[in-house]
Amino acid sequence: FDSKEKLGIALVGLGNYATHQLAPAILETKHCYLAGIVTGTEAKEAVWMSKYNIKKENVYNYDNFDSIKDNPEIDIIYVVLPNSMHAEFTIRAAKAGKHVICEKPMATSVADCKKMNAACKAANKKLSIGYRLHFDPFNDQMMRLGQNKVYGNRMDINTDFSFTLNDPNSWRTKKKFAGGGPLMDLGIYCLQGCIYTFGELPTELRAKASTKNSALFKDVEGTMEWEMTFPSGKANCKTSYETPFASYLTAKTEKGTLELNPSFNYDGLSGSTPDGPMQVQNVNQQALQIDAFALNVLNDTNTIVSGEMGLRDLYLIEKIQESAAQNGKLIQL
Ligand code: NDP
């Protein structure tokens, strides 16, 4: 592949994840290059143009973004904005005739997810969600061992993804931007992990929200804990912005423990099975995720991390929030 055969990506929202993970990952892909940027911060333009050799005519802001439809160098738009802005920019990207990768959570409501899927379908453009762990060999091993019931038919899962958030100005503490607390941001990985380890959907759930620092977490919960019942077992999940860092998924099987710890990080993942350590290597998850989508576009195949999957997860997140709002009411799914 020379550069003409590579697909051009434009990143929308040049924050932490775009700057420190996605842009460097695009350099590691085989089928893509960073062709453009969309930013609301003028000062970032020159820095990115020189660092990634981006042409001035491929630089957009949120107001002139729709004119990207006239730019044949941009094939894929990658939305990396605060959660509540995902829907608007995914829909505008589809209307501009571009394929879209949208970060997780897909949106802040089921209703918005449906609009996003409909817009991409109407424009005949592909949409995928930034679920990088589907391209990670440790999580892939967990899916394979769990779904094939290699260690028995029943499992009990415990999982936690948490970190301490101290920044009162972060959009993550504001419902208007985040749509919810750590559940939207981190707990979505626990939810995904349970579903792909069982290879099943939950049949019922109950949830409890709590907050220690109510000055910082006025608007969203500080911690969410929830239980789910699956056809083949149970899951206990936790996610928090006010406990020390945790990132693990442990499945107690009939023949011993299957575990990823850490499970949800970008790098340094580690896994063990009743037969010993998992014999796989860490990879650049984002590079593989982006390349897989490029191949979906080039070969007209379906993504394994679709807008339908993003919608499914928002449906379950809304049910978790609904249960928590009703003091842990059991919800049948
Ligand atoms: P940041 O706050 O670091 O960056 C968000 C960027 O969005 C800002 O830098 C800004 O870019 C732009 N923006 C536009 N309007 C606003 C606004 N009103 N408030 C704040 N920012 C605004 O967030 P992250 O990079 O951590 O997260 C962005 C998205 O990526 C989220 O949806 C998050 O869930 C997801 N994410 C996914 C990860 C994964 O592992 N898959 C990991 C981390 C995040 P500019 O200045 O260019 O306009």
Q: How many H/I helical runs?
A: 9
Cα-to-Cα separation, first versus last residue: 47 Å
Ligand inventory: NADPH dihydro-nicotinamide-adenine-dinucleotide phosphate
Share in β-strands: 15-25%
- The low-confidence runs, each spanning 5 or more residues with pLDDT under 50, are none
Mean pLDDT: 97
The second-level CATH architecture of the largest domain is 2-Layer Sandwich
CATH class assignment of the largest domain: Alpha Beta
* Cα Rg: 20 Å
Strand ordering within the main sheet: 14-13-12-11-7-10-9-8-15
Q: Per CATH, what is the topology of the largest domain? A: Dihydrodipicolinate Reductase, domain 2
Q: CATH superfamily of the largest domain, please? A: Dihydrodipicolinate Reductase, domain 2
Return the structural class.
alpha/beta
Approximate shape: globular
Biggest sheet character: 9 strands, mixed
Return the string of H and E elements. EHEHEEHEHEHEHHEEEEEEEHHE
Number of domains: 2
**How many beta-strand runs?**
15
Q: What percent of the residues sit in helical stretches (DSSP H or I)?
A: 25-40%
